[in-house]
Amino acid sequence: MGQPKQLLKYHDVNLIQHAIDEALAAGAQKVLVVLGSNAEKISEQINKKQANVLYNKNWEEGVASSIKEGLQQSLLLSANLEAIILMVCDQPYVNAALLKNLVSQHVESQKNIVASQYKDTLGTPVLFHKSFFPELLKLKGDAGAKKILMDNSEQVQAVRFPLGDIDIDNMADYEMLLQQKM
Q1: Per-residue confidence (pLDDT) for residue 180, from 0 to 100
Q2: pLDDT digits (tens, 9 = 90+) for 121-178
Q3: Is the CB of residue 167 less than 8 Å from the CB of residue 173?
């Protein structure tokens, strides 16, 4: 892309700050941002009063290493952590209402995983109850937490997120996003 996608501007804010802002607007007690490639450049653009920034030295191993780094640090910051929401910054339509809905569906359904549903899949943002922390800490490679969702479908509550499949993976995705009127 020629630059870190986390720093791409959308609605006058970069994608990483947008994700932080929405998490805070949803009432997150703590926001942790896990960075890998280009960490220093991205970190400079984050309001450190709003989020704890972590560097994942094992980022090249895949997304699982970032999940583990974020969860381990979350547990150090808050030993009584009941649940965690994993999200990525390249889904520009994530908003506070969606994040609040994940939490409320967790409470209402008593399900230990609440995942966003878009197209024919479940994915991020996703809430995991602490009962799944050991499994999250065992993840390896670039598979992320999708396998945990699939292996525990009876414990998953889905929340509709119609625009969840829109993510920024390349410049064509970004240009398409800029052309949309939403």
Answers
A1: 83
A2: 999 999 999 999 999 999 998 878 999 999 999 999 999 999 999 999 999 999 999 9
A3: yes
Question: Strand pairing of 113-118 and 32-35?
Answer: unpaired
CB 5 within 8 A of CB 174: yes
**CB 5 within 8 Å of CB 15:** yes
148 near 113, Cβ under 8 Å?
yes
CA distance 37 to 59: 7
Whose CA is closest to 157, among 84, 103, 83, 88?
Answer: 103
User: In whole angstroms, what is the distance from residue 86 CA to residue 121 CA?
Assistant: 16
DSSP 83: E
Amino acid sitting at position 28: A
Rama region for 144: left / alpha / beta (φ>0; ψ in -120 to 50; rest):
left
| Partners of 118 in the β-ladder | 121
Spatial separation of the C-alpha atoms in residues 67 and 32, rounded to whole Å: 11
Q: Residues 72, 139: contact at Cβ < 8 Å?
A: no
Question: What structural domains and CATH numbers belong to the chain?
Answer: 5-179 (3.90.550.10)
Rounded Cα distance, 63 and 61, in Å: 7
Mean pLDDT (the chain) is: 94
